[in-house]
Hints:
By secondary structure, chain A is of the alpha/beta class. In chain A, about 35% of the residues lie in helices and about 15% in strands.
Amino acid sequence: MKKFTLLQSSMVPLTVENVDTDQIIPARFLKATDRKGFGENLFRDWRFTTDGETKEDFTLNQSQYSGSILVAGNNFGCGSSREHAAWALADYGFRVVISSFFADIFKGNALNNGILPIQVSPEVLQRIFAAIEENKGVQATVDLENQQLSIAETDIAVSFEINDYKKMCMLNGYDDIDYLLSQKEAIEAFEQNRS
Amino acid sequence: MKKTLFDKVWDSHVVSSVENGPDILYIDKHLIHEVTSPQAFNVLEEKGIPLFRPNQVVATADHNVPTENQHLPIQDALSRKQVSQLTKNCDQYGVNLYGLGHPYQGIVHVIGPELGVTQPGMTMVCGDSHTSTHGAFGTIAFGIGTSQVAQVFASQCVLVAKPKSMRVVVSGKLHPSVQPKDVVLYVISKLGTDAGTGHFVEFAGNVFEEMSMEGRMTVCNMSIEMGARGGMIAPDQTTFDYVAGREFAPKDEELTAKIAHWKTLPTDEGATFDTEHHFDATDIKPMITYGTNPGMGVKISEHIPTSNDASFVKSLNYMGLEAGTSLLNMPISHVFIGSCTNSRIEDFRAAAAHIKGKQKSPDVSALIVPGSQQVAKQIIAEGLDQIFEDAGFTLRQAGCSACLAMNDDKIPAGAYCVSTSNRNFEGRQGQGARTLLASPVTAAAAAVAGKIVDVSQA
Ligand code: SF4
């Protein structure tokens, strides 16, 4: 996993609420047996018509919006457990998703793939959307060490939550699997004790 | 200390806790399927590590298998590759696979309970959000991402913070036309799709106590649709009777000892939950969804609500429906009875009882997809196949099918489908398809009438 410390970037707004994993990556693209290339089909049916034409009014197709931070409406990532959703976002180039609420499984999947989900209040979320509308290239700074999110040219500067363990993993680029493998003895002892 | 069912099962599976971090939770049973496992097997390969406890893993192929001609090679090249990859991986790592053609093959959440793999008091995971289904047995069961599938392969554990607890109590007498699916759609329509986030839900009250195991599975299946990690129902005699005698269930003295333990699991009198919700059963009527998330549901007798919220408007636009109108008598062209929510034998019995002696509308194509080979066999044994055939329904072979449209079973763009599955997301049943979630009886009735009907009025 890539390390995450400090990120400065413009943002892509997606004001829709309850964005589900079927929108992030439709099921028909889940037939791959590796993790690569999912970015191509990120938000496929919102980006392209059934004939493969670009839908100009969708945020990812609007050149004034760019950057590695996605700002999304409430309850982002609900639905399926498919990690392909996180792979698609990461492969497309997103490192941070900001929303007022995340579905549980998505949040875990994001963190396991080096994407930082930042939960802000509904009010702050609206102010961020407004700030982007005001200045499409406005820069956001995400400081994981200090758990701070700030938006340039505005007074938006908020702290965000992340549990200590996950923060340590993100900062160092560690995977859960390495930690679990280091606990093998304890796990075997647990198995012995219960049988 | 007074403990909830959830606490008892969780606490007894914690190997240790990371300081200011998650618990290391030991997993008794790990279910896998073709879509979310290949990348996890790749991790074992890349790291050069073994699968830690292959005997605790059960595999099947369900998500993208065809539901016709399963004896032939799969036509779609990518699906064929994914399924053969699963076979190869299971061979290599010594995992029990119930693949295509095996008498135990089926949707992963149908075969676990049916084979007695699922038992009370266990922890179970699968790379699939509807793993919550198994909670019907008083089991902690939840969906995980593929990175976590790899973790369980490597260590038989997941790292996960203990969720909060919620209790949803439904008590009183249900109207005879109300199915378990209606109960859960009603609860989600009241609470919304994010109410359960961060929680494990226990469903309690006489309504769930009186439900069959099939009904309880339908309810727990959809707990994820209210955002919860999973749902649970306390094990009782109904549970023990269902488990006893199944292929992988404990037998004889072992079963007696297990049942004695299972009886200690229900929530202690006076134990507290972080959140509680109470509903009156008499208020529940047959339900249907009108929008693009499972919380957007109404009683069939009610009108679609009105709202200026942009996401609500977008959703109704997609559905081609108008706020404030009634869905009653609206023509539909497709019906799908299947998916891990409603593809067990009881669901097909209920549908068949409604269909018997009738004909489906000529304007509707109606698909019946059993959840497993065993359910398919039972359908034939009980003569239900004849009822479906006489009424003009198409009976297929086991799989996820039109629930997520990864195979050829797709609903055309713009068409309305009354579906017994669990998700009405945009494009879920095919690009542009419009899904109306309902119970098997409401779906069967819609197929016969060619439009949406209120079975409570029949
Ligand atoms: S039937 Fe549908 S919801 Fe259930 S496991 Fe299959 S795809 Fe998922």
